[in-house]
Amino acid sequence: xxxxxxxxxxxxxxxxxxxxxxxxxxxxxxxxxxxxxxxxxxxxxxxxxxxxxxxxxxxxxxxxxxxxxxxxxxxxxxxxxxxxxxxxxxxxxxxxxxxxxxxxx
Length: 105
Prior knowledge:
This protein is an all-alpha fold. About 55% of the residues lie in helices and about 0% in strands.
């Protein structure tokens, strides 16, 4: 019977091998990952145990330069009304109509 192992189980096996004395380079080659990945897994395992070997999101925690919802809605409305207008014209029209800070200069 073929058993499929979870990512956490595979990472744990790699960490165990390193903690048992095997070289990081050898373990990384066996699992087909970079040495940096193995070092990261070992560090996370030491910091928080098995739960830390779970996959993590790469999504940023915050986006300070993100366009506000109001400006986004206004751009979408203008795009529907005037589909041939480009970004320069849309920015100019928005600045003119609502004096929005969407264009930086």
